[in-house]
Amino acid sequence: MSGEPHIRKVRPDDLEEVWRVHVASSNDLAARRGRPTARPADAPVASDARAGLASDPDGYFCAVEEGRIHGMVSALVRGRVWYLSMFFVLPGDQGRGVGRALLERALAYGEARGVEVRCVWASLDPRAQARYVMAGMAPRWPIYRLEGDAAAVARLRARVGLDARERELPCDPAAAEKLTAEVFGHGRADDLAYWRSDASAALAIERGGELTAFAYRRGERIGPAAGLDETALLQAVAAAANAGGGGNVTVRVPGACASLLEALVGCGFRIGELAVFLASRPFGRPELYLPSGPILY
After folding, report:
1. What are phi and psi of 131, to 5 degrees?
2. What pTM was estimated for this model as a whole?
3. Residue 240: which of 257, 230, 226, 258 has the closest Cα?
4. How far apart, in whole angstroms, are the C-alpha atoms of residue 255 and residue 262?
5. Rg of the Cα atoms in the chain
6. How far is CA 154 from CA 10, 150, 220, in A?
7. Domains in the chain, CATH or no CATH each
8. What tens digit of pLDDT does each residue of 17-59 get?
9. Helices (DSSP H) in the chain: which residue ranges?
10. Phi, psi for residue 171 in degrees, rounded to 5
11. Could you read off the pLDDT of 199-226 as tens digits, one per residue?
């Protein structure tokens, strides 16, 4: 690529090509780190990526040269929090200023919205880490991808019990929104509505008549989930893991959720890829929130 890239907003009909940039860049990083490439080049666009474009069309940008998309970035604003949802440049165009130009636009979107906190779920790529540190974000904790088979899920169920005051029930949307606002620091009503539409199960824990935690299961993925305390969060995650007869599940657990992480590993969940959460400053109650995944957090 020669000269300055042309940066413009992503349109809905760009998403297939934008997603191919994401897949190519992710697979290149995996190969450079000695891991198997995760997805075929023509993998379908994740529904979370479509939801991000719908919620924040002014925070989604692509770099175009000769009619082809070479890089993309998407930023979400939730209350006072700016979250870097996706940021990918084709392998052959990295180190040429494309990423810098894209990130500048994404950061400017947050400034225009009056955000107070910047954060990102980042790979271990040193170049990406340096870019985020220079944008004022400091590493806060690792994020572990944990995979549990049916046996691990069964052990989790046996380990996590409910006492006489507690019960498991379908999740009330309004109660989930209120709890998420408390632990994330800001309301996520639109995101929760989208996650509910995508969920195969949405379960809650009630203690003494009060909803104390909830967790969504989307296919084999658990998240988002939130709890008033760490015990309740673990109970909700266990309930979601066992929904629909259990089976294999995947959970992305921030290191801030230390007791949940310890319980899952102790029950035989395997640790997969690692990532790092960086933020300009802490916010909310991160030990009580399990993210949905890297695109919407």
Report:
1. -60, -40
2. 0.92
3. 226
4. 10
5. 19
6. 44, 6, 15
7. 6-115 (3.40.630.30), 144-272 (3.40.630.90)
8. 888 888 887 777 766 766 765 677 677 888 999 999 999 999 9
9. 15-32, 47-55, 98-112, 126-134, 150-159, 173-184, 189-198, 230-242, 258-266
10. -80, 130
11. 889 999 999 889 999 999 999 999 999 9
